[in-house]
């Protein structure tokens, strides 16, 4: 696989009274987790065999910027019952679509392929008139929708047309779901890594690094940080189109403002150890400590992403759900001794 790269290229404080512990799973998929106090540890170890349900939903808070730190996530499963998706999708002024295969799901909804019904241009593959689009669903009862449409919509409205951010063409509510009609994209970097025998060359990772930094620079210039940088959220363009070698950054459900729009100053520092945002494996040390997000968090997570793609694993992988990571064994402790040793000399 060939990836284009270049300068503007196209791929591409500890709480001493109540010490915190974090539940860690080598196969963590959720992007919001619950931190547990020391007294809870014994109870969990005694009563739980497999704790994946605990590594999931946290309480949802809304900060000054309107961002949200949690979401139920599974839009098609509410209170144990199956909620059917609409068979025919039409929101706002969009053309009608039928739902095709499922592309995936995460903490902020689920994504399906949408095929346009009776397209006037059957061979159109890009833009609002494309025969195939991505349909992102979020159920009305999701915590991300407690205040109306998903917060992510506001982020996409602000970032529309930003380099490396997919376009949203239509959005609206239909039945029990909030729906976005978006660009159909290709495989994620994790898919590429998996399909390449869990290997990537130094040259390929270098090209990815150049383009990913460019995307984050543009995102940060719009006063947002992504908050969940990882291989799954970097996606290539749709195969067979001019964008197939371009890199895109998706899933903006955890994006927040790093700078106040009116004052032009960095948002105020805060630390809330009970709140974690991101994905355990790739989250920055500051995110683990519950500190206000900033641009460095994205860059640190990008560094972990690149090391993973190059080396195939990160030093802190391998902790099972029954193992607890205390403040004395966080990434900041093992990063200094292992990360540099894992990178090329």
TrEMBL record:
Keywords: ATP-binding, Kinase, Nucleotide-binding, Serine/threonine-protein kinase, Transferase. Residues 34-84 are annotated as: Disordered. GO terms for biological process: endocytosis; signal transduction. ATP binds at residue 136. Signal peptide: none annotated. InterPro entries: CK1_Ser-Thr_kinase, Kinase-like_dom_sf, Prot_kinase_dom, Protein_kinase_ATP_BS, Ser/Thr_kinase_AS. Residues 34-81 have a biased composition (Basic and acidic residues). One of its GO terms (molecular function) is protein serine/threonine kinase activity. It holds the Pfam family Pkinase. GO terms for cellular component: cytoplasm; nucleus. Residues 97-345 form the Protein kinase domain. PROSITE patterns: PROTEIN_KINASE_ATP, PROTEIN_KINASE_DOM, PROTEIN_KINASE_ST. The keyword Cytoplasm does not apply. Its EC number is 2.7.11.1. The keyword Nucleotide-binding applies. Belongs to the protein kinase superfamily. CK1 Ser/Thr protein kinase family. Casein kinase I subfamily. This is non-specific serine/threonine protein kinase. It comes from Solanum lycopersicum.
């Amino acid at each position: 696989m060939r990836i284009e790269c270049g300068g503007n290229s196209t791929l591409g404080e500890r709480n001493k009274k109540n010490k915190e512990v974090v539940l860690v799973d080598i196969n963590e998929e959720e992007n919001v987790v619950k931190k547990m106090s020391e007294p809870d540890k014994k109870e969990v170890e005694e009563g739980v065999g497999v704790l994946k349900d605990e590594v999931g939903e946290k309480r949802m808070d809304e900060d000054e910027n309107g961002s949200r730190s949690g979401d139920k996530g599974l839009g098609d499963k509410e209170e144990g019952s199956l909620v059917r998706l609409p068979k025919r999708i039409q929101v706002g002024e969009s053309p009608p679509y039928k739902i095709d295969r499922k592309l995936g799901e995460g903490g902020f909804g689920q994504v399906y392929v949408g095929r346009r019904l009776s397209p006037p241009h059957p061979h159109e593959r890009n833009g609002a008139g494309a025969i195939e689009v991505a349909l992102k669903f979020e159920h009305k009862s999701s915590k991300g929708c407690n205040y109306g449409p998903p917060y992510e919509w506001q982020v996409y409205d602000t970032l529309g047309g930003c380099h490396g951010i997919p376009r949203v063409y239509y959005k609206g509510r239909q039945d029990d779901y909030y729906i976005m009609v978006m660009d159909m994209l290709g495989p994620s970097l994790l898919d590429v890594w998996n399909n390449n025998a869990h290997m990537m060359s130094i040259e390929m990772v270098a090209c990815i690094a150049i383009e990913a930094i460019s995307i984050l620079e543009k995102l940060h210039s719009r006063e947002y940080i992504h908050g969940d940088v990882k291989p799954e959220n970097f996606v290539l363009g749709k195969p067979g189109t001019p964008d197939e070698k371009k890199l895109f950054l998706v899933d903006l459900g955890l994006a927040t403002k790093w700078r106040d729009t009116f004052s032009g100053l960095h948002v105020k520092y805060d630390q809330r150890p009970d709140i974690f945002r991101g994905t355990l494996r790739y989250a920055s040390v500051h995110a683990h400590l519950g500190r206000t997000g900033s641009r460095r968090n994205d860059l640190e997570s990008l560094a972990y992403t690149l090391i993973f793609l190059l080396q195939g694993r990160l030093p802190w992988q391998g902790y099972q759900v029954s193992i607890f990571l205390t403040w004395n064994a966080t990434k900041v402790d093992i990063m200094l001794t292992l990360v540099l040793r894992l990178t090329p000399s």
